[in-house]
Amino acid sequence: MNAIAKPTTRPANPNFSSGPCAKRPGYSLEALKDAPLGRSHRAKVGKARLKEVIDRSKAILGVPEGYLLGIVPASDTGAVEMALWSLLGARPVDVLAWESFGSGWATDIVKQLKLKDARVMEAGYGEIPDLAKVDFSHDVVFTWNGTTSGVCVPNGDWIPADREGLAICDATSAAFAMDLPWDKLDVVTYSWQKVLGGEGAHGVLVLSPRAVARLESYVPAWPMPKIFRMTKGGKLIGGIFEGETINTPSMLVVEDALDGLKWAESIGGLKGLIGRSQENLKAISAWVDACADVAFLAANPAIRSSTSVCLKIVAPWFAKLDDAGQQKAQKAIVGLLDKEGVAYDLGAYRDAPAGLRIWAGATVETADLKAVFPWIEWALAEVAKDFG
For a tag on the chain, would you pick the N or C end, based on fewer CB atoms within 10 A? Predict the structure, then answer.
């Protein structure tokens, strides 16, 4: 591989991590100065802030009337676990896994909840299971967008309107960046730290009327930890979805989430957020087409993520390396970019094939992506000297 001159233009923001993700453009801690710190989240001011997050989130996302949105513990993971432990077991379940998080939910369902009527439908990184074979007389658990593989479902057409089971969707890297068909989804989970660039620790759980009906009519056979309980005396604990959280939230994190939501409103709401992410994917696609050394992990454009963009390195020198060599070379590339301060956290997820992962959600500026591409090419050429 020929040497490449070191670029001179640097991204204004070198943060391309897939979670926590880049803060919104123009972000400042000054935005959090009015956070009600040192106050109880159960006080009027705390509940008002939490309710404001709920209301603004529902409005931006277009959550339908009758659906509930609540703030829950432990990020998206906590929200998914609450849904799995509280809702599953009433019917057989299909769980779709084509990357590490979907595989994690499959493990929980099969090995922790030990559901005997569970079918795991798997596909390799860069691919997706055959959606036509999903049985919606079962409950169905899936990720809308596979953060660690860069593969998303193409749309909601594969989900029937007259389904018997519940559609339980982990949408953490899709919410606010992709158009979710709410009428096809019964449970949706996400966290602020993805597309909105919010701080971690809290998750969001959205329930359809069908999901609420399941909660109020079905009692799981296993003990239910307090942090997962959403019913009392056979009725939904409605306060969870009005700002009365199960455990103590960080009011600083809540204020940060409000800042992200207000920014989203200022750029045109959901349409503006989706547009920014799509422009970023367009820029990455143009670069990949022009660069012979990288390719999308998802070969099919119809299932290609616009947020967690996963790339494989296809340079001849890299392809000759064994798995251990490729992992070592990837670390060298990522480390070089980190050392130069031009791109942080650009490596593929630890369970994914060696390669690169670029967050391209709405908080990332297209100009910063265009500035980082030459640096990636330069780093590939530099590392090739030691591995090629």
Answer: C
Q: Cα 234 vs. chain centroid, distance in angstroms?
A: 32
Q: Kindly list the distances between the CA atom of residue 162 and the CA atoms of 117, 165, 184, in Å, as whole numbers in the listed order.
A: 21, 9, 9
**Half-sphere exposure (Cβ direction) of 106: Cα atoms closer than 13 Å:** 17
- CATH number (3.40.630.30, 1.20.1600.10, 3.20.20.70, 3.40.640.10) of 39-265 reads 3.40.640.10
State the distance between the two ends of the chain, measured CA to CA, in whole angstroms.
Answer: 7
Calculated CA dihedral for residues 312, 316, 322, 324, nearest 10 degrees: -60
DSSP structure string for 328-351: HHHHHHHHHHHHHTS-BS-BPPTT
Query: pLDDT tens for residues 257-289?
Result: 999 999 999 999 999 999 999 999 999 999 999
Cα atoms in the Cβ-side hemisphere of radius 13 Å centred on 387: 24
Select 269-387's CATH number: 3.30.450.40, 3.90.1150.10, 3.10.129.10, 3.60.9.10.
3.90.1150.10
Among candidate residues 145, 163, 161, the one with its CA nearest the CA of residue 153: 145
What is the average pLDDT value for the chain, to the nearest integer? 97
DSSP state of 21: P
**CA 346/CA 375 separation, integer angstroms:** 12
Q: What is the pLDDT of residues 48-106, one digit of tens each?
A: 999 999 999 999 999 999 999 999 999 999 999 999 999 999 999 999 999 999 999 99
pTM: 0.97
Neighbours of 117 (CB within 10 A): 12
C-alpha pair distances (Å), 355 with each of 148, 312, 349, 361, 381: 11, 5, 9, 19, 15
What count of residues does the chain have?
388
Q: Write down the domain spans for the chain.
A: 39-265, 269-387
**Whose CA is closest to 80, among 148, 143, 20, 126?**
143
